[in-house]
């Protein structure tokens, strides 16, 4: 078995994670974690939908920010996709998508403040980068044949519109619709930093132990996501997009002087600002690297590797829940519900909940990342097994799982996992805001101390780390000849 | 598609413009999120109503999610007045030249931090922190918010001064709960063994019977220091008319609605000045929170 490169690669990653566990801070520090978890589930089954006057408004804002953000992202992403061949464009897109929505929001909050633009841009910018990449991949794979049949002298734009777009339209539409679901999740968590979306109220109810209120919000959120196919209709889409900007809320007016100040003063490293020049930069940078960047990078990488393997294990355990090859319709339906909940809950919210219940350590983060990402991958490969036809006399039960199904889906499983590697790392960094000592913790500390120069350097480091892991993930997928479709 | 987007851009930019002009003459204030949000919203909506009546302008309170967000909103002139802690006030006034501390609570002249411990640790209350060294070492400890005076700055200062070590070296695990109520709950539940919080929050919760005194107790009280204050921007007169700053100050000092004061909880507001907070600035510089 060791002769299979996929098995070897898997074992290396498992080994790294096991060694990582020795260094990781994994603990349940709460004295009564199960009672709290019990209270939480009690809250979810006794939801209180009338707790906050702002709940429905928050839901509306969550949808509005998602629509405006994703619409702008897909528009600019499409434009960028047309010139994606150019190296500078590719680097630019890799960079803007390597920075998490919450980091973008934290940056814009510093000069746009609580204006709707902050939330809109926080979604639109990283999404443009992602759309650019995926659209360009879709366009590239378009069938070149129709184009060759066009008469000579056909204009470039006409050729593009008539020979290329029709071929890829369905795929682009599917992907964009899928991204809208991601946009709803992104929009919801923006509330955690103060924008008027669902996360704002969720954080407030949770921190006060109002589990029934929090339960109601989570249920509404799941319903919103699960019913997307019902209310997001192609014909209604233009209406939604036109209406969405009017439901973003007023916020507070932008003071443009703040924008200039942010770029010309706030983010200039302190020694340069105070006129110490390059001589002051060395101690400033080394202090930042030694005390913040290095511990942050170490913890981020450690947590990412453990969470990646935990995600893989969970996905492999979870896919039979929705697979046709096992059990009856009742179990499959409950399996679907479990996976929908796992993948619809943003990691950030899951981690926040578990941190409240279990106390601070890397454990809540690992479980949150594994549940969310494992839920997504489990769902995808579970669906894939449903397209497999086994011999009528194929073995059943556990042997069917280990000898028939897992080997058949293992390659696409690995492909998804390596694809999500970078996504997991991006999330890991952001979970630092919740108090786990990853890069996000130090970014948040710098912002709390009004030291945006430090925050920007740390965000830059986070972005570079993500770009690095993304490249490594792609390299491994190429080496192992794994192909996948994008997920978020 | 393109046309749709253009229309949308126009629509949204129109929206932004109208939003800006509609709220231009509203006097907006915020407060650091140091306690449970529902309580803050209730308290400061009361203040907004009161100020609106006294000043004859629209007054709006906006809740924020972090101390830094309150400071940034003040600095960015999106709010003109704020109820800051000692440290956030110093940060804000450094960033906004001309801004002034105009009033503080009666209790803020001599504010205190309480160190609290879960009773399962068996730590006994003591008069001085040094005598607790052996019992505290290696415990888990939580501050409040990273930007808090009573929940972070002062406790960290005393820990460093007394034990000559950084908190993360002295304790087994150091966390930031986010606010004082949460610190109380986390130590009460045993998630952290020891914590430090605003003494007013402790006293108020105790009075309201919200603390399980069998589970958590005060083990040490810090010496007094100046804390919370109302800080106003220097340019409010240009925007809201001559003498506006003075009127805000008078209104705050004249606030005698017992229920509202009780919600802070303060017995009243007294005049304050920027100089009152010099000790806080020095302490913050000493432990490296301020440059």
From TrEMBL, chain A:
Q: Where are its TM segments located?
A: 12-34, 54-82, 102-129, 186-202, 214-232, 239-256, 297-322, 334-355, 361-381, 423-443, 455-476
Q: Does the keyword Transmembrane helix apply?
A: yes
Localization annotation: Cell membrane
Q: What is its main location?
A: membrane
Q: How does it sit in the membrane?
A: Multi-pass membrane protein
Classification via InterPro entries: MetI-like_sf
User: Which GO cellular component terms, listed alphabetically, does the Swiss-Prot or TrEMBL entry include?
Assistant: plasma membrane
Entry keyword set: Cell membrane, Membrane, Transmembrane, Transmembrane helix, Transport
Question: Know the name of this protein?
Answer: Phosphonate transport system permease protein
* Source organism: Marinobacter pelagius
From TrEMBL, chain B:
Q: Its GO CC terms? A: ATP-binding cassette (ABC) transporter complex
Entry keyword set: Signal
According to its UniProt record, what is one Pfam family this protein matches? Phosphonate-bd
Protein origin, superkingdom: Bacteria
- Which InterPro entries does the UniProt record give? ABC_peri_PhnD-like, PhnD
What biological process terms from GO does the record include?
transmembrane transport
Q: Does the keyword Cytoplasm apply?
A: no
Is Signal there in the keyword field? yes
- Which Gene3D superfamilies does the record match to this protein? Periplasmic binding protein-like II (3.40.190.10)
Q: Which NCBIfam families match?
A: 3A0109s03R (TIGR01098), ABC_peri_selen (TIGR04553)
Family of this protein = Belongs to the phosphate/phosphite/phosphonate binding protein family.
The name this protein goes by in its record: Phosphonate transport system substrate-binding protein
Q: Which organism is it from?
A: Marinobacter pelagius
